[in-house]
Amino acid sequence: MDVWYPNMxxxxxxxxxxxxxxxxxxxxxxxxxxxxxxxxxxxSRRLAGLEGQLSxxxxxxxxxxxxxxxxxxxxxxxxEQVEQLCFAMINAVSGTETQLEGTxxxxxxxxxxxxxxxxxxxxxxxxxxxxxxxxxxxxHLVDLTRREADLALRxxxxxxxxxxxxxxxxxxxxxFASPTYLATSKQKRKPERLxxxxxxxxxxxxxxxRWLQRHATREPILRTTSMSTLIAAAQSGxxxxxxxxxxxxxxxGLARIPGILPDLPRAKLWLVGHRELKDVxxxxxxxxxxxxxxxxxxxxx
Length: 301
Hints:
The protein is built from ten helices and 14 strands. The chain is an alpha/beta fold. It has three domains: 2-94, Winged helix-like DNA-binding domain superfamily/Winged helix DNA-binding domain (Arc Repressor Mutant, subunit A); 102-171 and 267-300, D-Maltodextrin-Binding Protein, domain 2 (3-Layer(aba) Sandwich), CATH 3.40.190; 173-256, Periplasmic binding protein-like II (D-Maltodextrin-Binding Protein, domain 2, 3-Layer(aba) Sandwich). The model is unreliable at 1-10 (pLDDT under 50).
């Protein structure tokens, strides 16, 4: 999408606005590169090219990141209007699709991806061979209104955007460890005596982390940002981990620790999508598949 400005020597490309918005939202060129699925150096070069077209500086480069100039602050709301128009056009075209084919981007956490969804993708491919799935993995909430994903599995219900959300599962929290750890730690089956594995301080507000802060008297022996690392460490016999019951029961090499019933709100899993795209065949098919997948896990728990 090109927009021509009389005071500029070249066409103004929508991709240039993407760079502006990514840099503004992330506050760093490395973050902008990740958001645009490119490198920091490419993001920096594209931003410099945009500033060259405008003959003006949009961001002050600082050691800790970048800071928007007054001009950038003025341009961002306008760029967001163009962004919304582009998404509206894309959604309008997507809404006319009638075939079960194309790409579906599903955002979810690392744990759900590695242990639940990815192992089930061969079944989805058997059902719908023309549907391609891209898994957007991370603990951060992607913005579905900006088409960062088509669907999302979230632990919290969205409060903004024209989205449809369905709670597809609700689970109590339980403590899990390997049979080896349980066999050698019979005297440790109280929260204050267990060797806990949990999230790092950056995820201190996670409900399981908050519970451990109240009940564990010793510092956890492992902290990490990776769910797969927590699970691998627990499976190896290093210590205990808090998990939603259905998820923990589905993992090989782990068993519930008797007598530990965390007084935590039930873990809820929400399936989220664009309201205006809910009837697009490929999205509806993946939505239904994910619902059935989680329901199957719950029945086996």
